[in-house]
Structure formats: C-alpha cells, structure tokens
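Z., the sequence and structure:
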Amino acid sequence: MSVAWSQSTWKVLLIAVYFAKIVVTKTAHGDGENQSPFRLPDAISPIHYQLTLLPVIEENPRLCGHVWIDVTVNSPTNAIVLHGQVLPVESVVYADSEVIDNEVSRMLVERMCFSGVLDALDSLSDDKPKSRDDKDIAQSVHLDEDSEQMIIILKEELIVGAFYRIGILYLAEINDGDNIGFFRVQKKQEDNNCCRQRWIGSTQLEATHARKVFPCFDEPAFKATIELTLGHDSKLRAISNMPSNSSTSLKTVDDWVWTTFEKTPVMSTYLLACVISELEYLETSYLSINGRNITIRLWTEKQKFSQLDLAYRLVPTIMKTLEDYFGIPYTLP
C-alpha cells in the first residue's frame, strides 16, 4: 500500500513540475503562436554589459563571474529571458541605471572563487545597502536546460521605454577537451633546456557559446557594448578585443591581478574573445587613410616568432589595401 502511494505521489509531483515549467515558459515568452521557445522574445534589448570574469585554469579549474546588463524595454513583460548555461548564485533587477562600483563586483567574484559561495553571499548582504534591496524587483530565477535560457520572474511589469539594470553573480565551467565557451589547453614549453607543462585559457564563443561564459542575450541581433574585467595570475598576460586600460591587484590572493579593457563597439556577444597565457607578440604598424598610425600585434609562443614572418610582412599591406579599396579607415584602437 505504501509503495503504491509513493508511486502515485511521485506522479503528482512530476505533473506539478511539468505544468510549473509550462507556466514559467508561458510567462516569459507570452502567448504568441509564432514565438519559438528556443528564440529569445524581443520585449527587452541589451545596451551594455559590464562583465567581470575570474577563470582559474590550473588546479581545480573553475570560472567565477558577475555581470551587470543594462537593458531597455520594448514591450510590456513581467519576465526577463536571456541565455545562460551557468549556475546563478544571486540575481537582482533594478529599475534604474545608477553608477555601479565595479570594485564591489570584483570583490564578490574573488570571494566566491577563492573562499566559497557562502562567503560571497555574506559579503553581498554586508555590502549591499538596504535601499538597494527595496529597489530589487527580481522574484525568482529559473533555468531551462532544453532552450539554454535563464528566466527571471519579476515582482512587477516592466515599463515600456524605461531602462533597467540586471545583476547576476554566477559560477560556470572551464571546458577540458571541447574548445568551446571558456576552455583550457595544456602546452609543453622549453625553458632553459627543461620542459614544463603550462595552461592556456581562452574563449570560443561562436556561434552560440557566449552563454556558457556569462548570462547574455546570445543571438546576433541583440548587439551591445561590452566592458570586460579579467582576473588572472600576474605571471600571465591577458588579451581581449580591446586594449587594456588598467590593472589592479586582487585583495584576497597574492600575485593575481585584475585587467580591465576598454569598452567595445556595439557588437554581438559571440564576437567577444579573451586569452590568458604566456604568449608574447611581435609588433608592426601601418598608416591609415585618415592619417592615424595603426598598431598590429601578432601573438604566439616566443620560440615560434620565426613562423610569423609572412604575416608580419603581409598583414599591414592587406589592411592598407582594404582601407584604400573601401574608402573606410580602420576604427578600432
């Protein structure tokens, strides 16, 4: 009798979970017949990402992160749907866009990565003003593994034309073997007649793998600017789409630094890239059609510099030829 009751109870629970998932999906995507559950609704558009990443690529690899996403509202909705194949630890939604101190984001990520999730949450409750709690309109967060979406249910309907700020503290994986998302590869390097193993951390976000690295609107049409801060061992170099503009030491561990990069142009999420390594570069340049001197850096292992000879000679010529042909100067730094 007890076995039969247990089986029926499980059936009821499974049915309840199934219908709860339907309700969440309906709430998030609306009732539009033509809306695919695998595509994001267009009720919200991203404007800017302030992304903080701390990848640990050697012992016990892990990726800790925090992202602020500034969005604008195109149509009424009481849910925010974005992509996310990460584990959200804490999520907030604010109905304003006041300046957020990036140092707070860095400290949260540091504590979560090196001291644990509970320590980060304790820090969050200590550092967050009570006035911010009152403004947080996030009610709950749901992950849909099938559609790779993160759904934030809200306490109130968003106002069309208004600006909001989404904040998400999260954990993610560093991939071994599959060179997608944020991944690591092991290289053997010869130093002083001795070989040693070293790790390189890198990203491959095309076509739909940005969602493995940070919660985002991971479809090409949802373009926004991105400002990246990357934590890494001070012995390693960090490079990304844009030049770095500052470097500060981590507060919780020695010999690690935060490297912050300039804001990108408006672009799709899959175009973001970063590398943490001991790579070095050869530098050359050419004169743009607008009179600006454009610096080109070719990155590789130092012992392979000789293999860059062709690229070193041809890339400046190719860039200049393309500018002359299209009449458009290269605009990135």
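Residues 2-29 form the longest helix (28 residues). The chain has three domains: 1-35, 44-278, 282-326.

Let me know what you think.
H.
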